[in-house]
Specification:
single chain, mainly alpha, two-stranded antiparallel sheet, 19 helices, transmembrane helix
């Protein structure tokens, strides 16, 4: 095991990797309940969705661990699943098989782009300052997710955001998770993020936040699998997508979102997992992108929306995960959860607040690498740092920063500094913003 995953070589231990895998799983476990809740509105059986969500996440996370040997985990992405549910009921006339075929097609195309080297080449063309900004923006985004999940920040009365109800049980559990995590981290206690989650889950029992499981074992249901090859008006669903211009445009929008979301997530996890080089490159990025791209297609085929690399993977990396053994552990737990999902779903999103907020704090260190005194460097970086959390979209925030970088460079007469692939990325973002 040690030789297979290079555990000792990366200054880790098998115990640390297993613990980090559990930390990542608990930080992501909410998707087992949330994904079926979102997609069942499209007409897919909720039990089948829970089963396929676990199996899809488990299989692709294990693939990530074995193929890329980095601590990244995959599962059905939030936001995309809500979009697909809406597409199924509106554009696709209630046929969820066609909607999932849109995801399947997007995954296949983006996989081809990776195999051709385009996706990796675009990442290499990104200026170092923007790579640092992506890490900072992701840190704020991760912290914002944790604070929102705990109700610590909410939509305000007459304002976009405000402080939540401090007497709310969810708020209290979130604060407990933060305090425990930070207190243990101050004392350099191993597994502080995991302990913080567990303590918050226990604290949530008398507060009514941690719900009693509805059972122990859930039956497996595979009825959501195979959407792209299902009949859709006399032809396979995937054929209907390929012949419908509207659905092709939607597929392009999803491709852009997946393309840059994963880039940002990979850089964020690489920073915590210590496989981000000094010039901002992610080690093993090609393998990571291949698995992530294939995961999107697998998600569409399994009927669970796009499976993508989860930003919550940073929690496991921050807890010491350095190898693919962390991912394999997370993946195995997801597969087991397919059988025991009623028990797993007792971990509330509020309980993971502390882990996500602490990871956000750690990622803020990248801000010191940005020369804020130089407008050509600082302003595009700021647009990413502010854009990611303020738009609640990784890809939108990155797009704003890319466009700002090109505009400032043009104003300064430094167009020659812009690499050709950056021009392509900016043009793609402009199209994405207009059609999304």
């Amino acid at each position: 095991m040690d030789e297979l995953f290079h555990v000792s070589e990366r200054k880790s231990t098998i115990g640390t990797e297993l613990r980090a895998g559990l930390t990542t799983f608990l930080a992501m476990a909410y998707i087992i309940a949330v994904n079926p809740a979102v997609l069942s509105g499209a007409g897919i059986d909720a039990g089948a969705l829970a089963c396929a969500t676990c199996l899809g996440a488990g299989i692709m996370t294990i693939c990530m661990g074995i193929f890329a040997n980095r601590p990244l985990a995959c599962a059905s992405g939030l936001g995309v699943n809500a979009m697909i549910a809406g597409i199924a009921t509106t554009v696709c006339g209630g046929d969820w098989h066609v909607a999932m075929s849109v995801i399947f097609l997007e995954g296949v195309v983006i996989l081809l782009l990776v195999l051709c080297g385009l996706r990796e080449a675009i990442m290499d063309a990104i200026p170092v300052v923007l790579r640092h900004a992506i890490s900072v923006g992701l840190g704020l985004f991760i912290a914002m997710i944790g604070l929102c999940d705990a109700g610590i920040i909410t939509a305000g009365a007459g304002t976009l955001v405000g402080l939540g109800d401090i007497t709310s049980p969810t708020f209290i559990v979130g604060i407990i998770s933060i305090l425990v995590t930070v207190a243990l981290a101050c004392r350099n206690v191993p597994g502080s993020l995991l302990i913080g989650i567990v303590v918050a889950v226990i604290a949530g029992i008398p507060l009514g936040v941690t719900q009693a499981p509805t059972g122990i074992i859930a039956p497996l249901d595979f009825s959501s699998i195979g959407g792209p090859i299902a009949d859709a008006g006399g032809v396979p669903a995937i054929v209907k997508v390929l012949t419908d211009p509207t659905l092709l445009v939607i597929s392009f929008s999803l491709l852009m979102s997946d393309f840059f979301d994963t880039m940002g997530t990979a850089m964020a996890v690489a920073k915590q997992g210590e496989f981000l080089t000094d010039d901002g490159n992610v080690e093993n990025i090609k393998e990571i992108l291949i698995v992530d791209s294939a995961a999107a297609a697998v998600g569409g085929f399994m009927g669970v929306s796009s499976i993508t690399t989860f930003v919550e993977s940073t929690s496991g990396a921050a807890d010491g995960g350095r190898t693919g053994l962390t991912s394999v552990t997370t993946g195995v737990l997801f597969i087991l959860a397919a059988f025991f999902s009623p028990i797993v779903t007792i971990v509330s999103s509020a309980a993971t607040c502390g882990a996500l907020v602490y990871v956000g704090y750690l990622m803020m260190s990248e801000a010191s690498e940005i020369d804020w005194s130089d407008v050509s460097q600082g302003f595009p970086a700021f647009m990413i740092v502010a854009g990611v959390p303020f738009t609640y979209s990784i890809s939108a925030g990155i797009g704003l920063g890319f466009i700002a970088y090109v505009i400032v460079a043009l104003f300064k007469g430094e167009a020659s500094k812009i690499k050709p692939l950056m021009w392509i990325a900016v043009l793609a973002f402009l199209v994405y913003f207009f059609v999304a």
